[in-house]
Write a structure and sequence with these properties.
With 407 residues, the protein is an alpha/beta fold. It is built from 14 helices and seven strands. The protein has a single domain, classed as SGNH hydrolase (Rossmann fold). A hairpin with a 2-residue loop joins strand 6 and strand 7.
Length: 407
């Protein structure tokens, strides 16, 4: 009921498409903080090598950042960026897709750090960054969302529908070469399954989570050529219970994630939910730490950096609420930027050596692709086809044959 009332208030303000009318400019500034992204500028970011490959790579193992032509995103309200650039509760129904960590395309890297804006430094003609905000529940077009196909409130059982929309869009979008262009899609979903677990323990079980994830990844692998899929590990959600303000907005936690918020501390219900959360993480890691979703022009990579991340804190140990929106659940732009940097870094770190964030309190420093391996890491570590390893193996084989011949 609270969420419905909030939606009614925001509709009363009157939204014309995705922008407010000129007479509402004062509200626009106060509620949405539209000038904040223009006032502060991040220092420039550059790398020694920001050039594309001499020819378009045919193998997923040799794709540089500048080779990526298309970016997309799948997921839920964390990817639609609910309330992310808002300053109060009235902004919560708005999806600030243009600043979303994995796909936002507002301005440049210096305005807001997102994966899309980082990739735009390497390829300014990148297709897909989300350009503007949208209103939850209202019809949207690709001109508003870009290739951010995430839908607020979606569970894992819905994600294949997002992928079908993505495939259809890719095939028809002007200027996109479906067969030849390299695509990067980032997928973070499953936390709503945990939020809804207590309502239907079968529908939102770990078994069903993995079933729907497998189905979704198979769909992409079978139908989309030249794609790298970042699957971001879901967070440990219990610490979100500690994000609190004595405000009406924080009561929205009970609407967004009642199964997490309402159980008493140390209750069996909460202990069960925490274990289910960990089981989701374990099962997803088991599914993706193999070459199950790897072939010449397609790879799925688990990016684990958020797995153990704790909420950001101030020097006195209290939660740093500047990272959280008025609903005490979703991230502000400040949080989205840290998520974007962690994702970029994981993309250029091999399996087994990927950075794990301990807390968002410590700003993440972006890394550059190395000279030795300037490509996005895609192949499981144990399956790595290193020329040095091949040479060593051949020498070892020749030595063994020589010993056998001698004997």
């Amino acid at each position: 009921m609270l969420l419905c009332a909030l939606l009614a208030v925001c509709i009363f303000i009157h939204v014309d498409g995705y922008t407010l009318r000129e007479e509402d400019e004062r509200i626009n500034q106060e509620v949405f903080g539209t000038d904040s992204l223009q006032r502060r500028l991040h220092p420039p970011f550059s790398c020694p090598d920001m050039s594309p490959s001499p020819t378009v790579p045919s193998s997923v193992e040799y794709v540089k950042a500048a080779d990526v032509k298309v970016i997309a995103a799948l997921g839920d309200s964390l990817t639609t960026a609910i309330g992310a650039n808002g300053s109060n509760i009235l902004a919560i129904p708005f999806e600030f897709r243009q600043v979303s960590w994995s796909i936002g395309g507002y301005g440049t890297y210096q305005n807001v750090i997102t994966l899309a804006n980082i990739l735009k430094l390497f390829n300014p003609k990148l297709l897909g960054p989300a350009p503007v905000m949208t209103f939850h529940g209202s019809p949207t077009t690709v001109n508003e969302t870009g290739f951010n196909f995430a839908i607020t409130g979606h569970n894992t059982l819905n994600v294949s529908d997002q992928i079908r929309t993505m495939i259809d869009t890719f095939k028809s979008y002007p200027g996109l070469n479906f067969q030849e262009d390299w695509k990067v899609v980032t997928m973070l979903i499953g936390m709503n399954d945990i939020c809804d677990y207590c309502k239907d323990k079968t529908l939102f079980s770990p078994d069903n989570f993995i079933h729907h994830m497998t189905e979704a990844l198979d769909l992409m692998m079978n139908e989309i050529p030249r794609m790298i899929v970042n699957v971001v590990q879901i967070l440990s959600m219990k610490p979100l219970r500690d994000v609190q303000r004595p405000t009406l907005g924080c009561q929205l936690q009970k609407s967004f994630c009642s199964c997490l918020v309402q159980p008493e501390e140390n209750s069996t219900e909460l202990e069960e939910l925490v274990e289910i959360n960990h089981e989701f993480q374990r099962r997803l890691e088991k599914l993706l730490h193999s070459d199950r979703f790897f072939k010449k022009d397609f790879a799925v990579v688990l990016q684990p950096y958020l797995e153990n991340a704790r909420p950001p804190t101030l020097p006195n140990g209290t939660i740093d609420l500047s990272f959280f929106t008025a609903d005490c659940f979703h991230f502000t732009v400040k949080g989205h930027e840290e998520l974007a940097k962690g994702l970029w870094n994981n993309m250029f770190q091999p399996e087994g050596e990927k950075e794990m964030i301990q807390t968002l309190s410590e700003p993440i420093k972006l890394i550059c692709p190395t000279k030795e391996h300037p490509y996005i890491y895609t192949k499981p570590r144990l399956k790595s086809s290193s020329p040095t390893l091949k040479h060593f193996s051949m020498n070892a084989l020749m030595s063994l044959l020589a010993v056998i011949h001698y004997l």
